[in-house]
Design brief:
The complex is a heterodimer of chains A (168) and B (286). With 168 residues, chain A is an alpha+beta fold. Chain A is built from five helices and five strands. Chain A has a five-stranded mixed sheet with strand order 2-1-5-3-4, covered by helices on one side. In chain A, strand 1 and strand 2 form a beta hairpin. The mean pLDDT of chain A is 93. Chain B has twelve helices and 14 strands. Classes of the chains: A alpha+beta (168), B alpha+beta (286). At the A-B interface, strand 4 and helix 3 of A face helix 2 and helix 6 of B.
Chain lengths: 168, 286
Amino acid sequence: MAIRINGTETRAPADPRVSLLDLLRETLHLTGTKKGCNQGACGACTVLADGERILSCLALAVQFEGRSITTIEGLAGQDGMHPLQLAFIEHDGFQCGYCTPGQICSAVGMAAELARGAPSAVTTDLGAATVRFTGEEARERMSGNLCRCGAHNGIIAAITQTYAGAAL
Amino acid sequence: MKPAPFDYVAPTTIDAACALLAEAGGGALVLAGGQTLMPLLALRMSQPFIVVDINRIDALKGVTRVEGGTRIGPVTRQNDIITDTILAEALPGLVTATQHVGHHQTRDRGTVGGSIAFGEPAAELPAAAVALGATIEARSIRGTRRIAADALYLGPYATALEPDELVTAIHFPDWPAGTITLFREVARRPGDFALVGLIGAFAVTGGRIARVGIAWFGMGPTPIRARQAEAALRGQPAAGLDARGVAALAVADTAPFDDHHATAEYRRTVGERIFSRALAEASVLF
């Protein structure tokens, strides 16, 4: 079985030790996904596995046979960048840019979670079919993505512009 | 690619997984969500010969109601606990505790069984299992047994599970309707391990505390049950509780460490405060 990465079928590595992150970066040369801490603390390696955000450094590539992975390289469409990518530029949602691919993949996953009503620690209406976008929700839900430059306010502004009030 | 070499197997049945663990003679490790194991492998702090990936065993997933309680499959993802309708009803305290486990990304992979079996002393789920009176079902080719969460934890990351045993379920007993759960956690940032945390469940019948379970996390080498506080509360009238007195008893059962995050004294002081305030707030609801 193969791993589908940004729509392309890829063979799983023969060595089970290869993390999903290393497969992306070292084998496929998809270097958009970044290796920060390599131990699940920073969020720079966040990718989407069947739409769910996961940390690719904490996953063995072989575990994802038969599944579909989307990285930052796979977010842009035929007609250009993803709206969230454009919003990050508009709002200076980065400085050095190292955490940015993880931030963007994470926020795309977050929007899907709000749409399907997955509550967070700050959600008050637990019965709602969808969770309303608020700055507090965004901050709580993006807490797994660190930015050492301190661009968090720009990041939240970009996410807010893209998802607040949008039909999720 | 930093881990030491290992063989990878992904069985699809519990029996096959148990056979592999038995065959490995202690050289195997079980991979569930991997959110703790993967860094340990990468840092070579853990060097198994075989990694047994249990993610393809469907029988280990999901939440079901059973006689007198709720059964949680160990490979149920932490984020699935948060959105589960059975648990929202039966174990709201567990849901709250799970919302504080790591970050969204780690909860999409991280499992209930993985966290409980690993036994990080500052983690939320082992303490929740202790406070709520869970039992852990463990299977090996030698048979199946149940271990009270209370008796599971022997030291930091050390449990009563044998190397050939696989956690096959976590059973949480029902608590009466109207049970109040307290959850408090003090951490430097959201998602960090707790400096101090507590979870408690209180069932009040006829104005008295009929049933109580309280456990600390981040307050010693294991999750720690606040036995003296539980004994002081059990059977007592819910009105007019001496929250400060009970908090002092609760802290008396802890054994926190000094480390580079906080001193033991800090943990005791903060623990007593959060316990006392939480109990005073909850007693309004009793």
